[in-house]
Amino acid sequence: MSFPLSSLSSSSSSLDAHGWDSGWASAFAPYAAQGLVPGRVIRVDRGQCDVATDEGVIRADTAFVTPHDPLRVVCTGDWAAVDPEGVSDPRYVRACLPRRTAFARSTSSKRSEGQILAANVDHAVITVSLAVELDLGRIERFLALAWESGAQPTIVLSKADLVPDPVGLSYLVEDVETVAPGVQVLPLSSTTGEGLDVLAATVAGGTTVLLGVSGAGKSTLANALVGENVMDVQAARDVDGKGRHTTTTRNLFVLPGGGVLIDTPGLRGVGLWDAETGVGQVFSEIEELAGNCRFHDCSHESEPGCAVAAAIEEGSLPVRRLESYQKLIRENRRIVAKTDARVRAEMLKDWKRMGREGRTAMEIKRGGRGR
Ligand SMILES: Nc1nc2c(ncn2[C@@H]2O[C@H](COP(=O)(O)OP(=O)(O)O)[C@@H](O)[C@H]2O)c(=O)[nH]1
Ligand SMILES: [Mg+2]
Ligand SMILES: [Zn+2]
Fold this sequence. Notes:
Blueprint: H1 5-9, H2 14-17, H3 22-33, E1 37-45, E2 48-53, E3 56-61, E4 79-82, E5 91-96, E6 102-106, E7 114-119, E8 123-129, H4 136-149, E9 152-158, H5 166-178, E10 184-187, H6 196-202, E11 207-211, H7 218-226, E12 252-254, E13 260-263, H8 276-282, H9 284-290, H10 307-314, H11 319-367
Parallel strand pairs: 3-5, 8-9, 8-11, 9-10, 11-13
Antiparallel strand pairs: 1-2, 1-4, 2-3, 4-5, 6-7, 12-13
Helix pairs in contact: 4-8, 8-9
The chain binds guanosine-5'-diphosphate, magnesium ion and zinc ion.
The site of magnesium ion (MG) has 4 residues, from helix 7.
């Protein structure tokens, strides 16, 4: 059975609208040859997912693509190869194409469990509410993960209508800019529409994921960008999202001006997940300074000739910034060490099993003395 290639590249298809391109088409070619149908995962829940294909949204079972590694579990944004119609009921996802980018976090900073929130994203919009006091450390953490994912971050300061004083607002923007070198910081209000056109232009191409803690205004923003109420918005008092009936039918939307938007569920926070490069990018000015320290392994604590300490002394680098950097580096090392320990434990288990099987095989060879 073969899948007509012409229908894979036909223009103005649902696939194209969902971000399909020639790169995905060539990665999919072997599956097309098996007659499988390509589609983008728009929602995942317990063993099943919804896949947007050229024949509409297909509900598919994920039993074949549920590896032990939680980082490889199917997630919103993945490109999937699904059974063609009539082959099995339910239809199964047979494979996922290798991801170009993925936003990973650890489910908590204490456990070494990674989780992918969105796959194949080009822009990461970190949504930070101006209704509550700015938490610069949390912004740095989201930024590190965003850079690490391979996506280009943008910071949206949401609910800007709650800061009516323009001078006050510009100070807040400046504060955030100092922790986000190379990143656009955009005040925005979904209520008044301020900043919405600028963001709409940024997200008009490629795939964008909305990130941020619960209550930041992500779903309200998704609705504003899509131009319809596609996501549930939390009642003002229900900041934890408890006791609320979700009618969400998808987490990935095609935007009216082109581009694809992924909304993520409310998080309390994000733990780092193997994000050393990302941390380096968030604190690029510190890493640059560190290049001028006398010792290449300077810890910037009390070494002589420390360029970082000199910058703090001189007032060009805030102490908070260095402390945050060192905290995230430590947290990252901890999580990587724990993951390694888990991976090592799993390998050991495998070796023991292989050893056992090897011994049994040898005993069988030697004359069937193995039980
Ligand atoms: N004043 C104001 N409130 C907003 C704005 N955007 C969202 N909200 C409110 O913030 C709360 C949380 O919004 P929601 O979109 O559910 O946040 P999410 O958890 O990040 O998806 C809701 O009560 C929204 O009505 C805004 O631009 N201005
Ligand atoms: Mg939401
Ligand atoms: Zn130093």
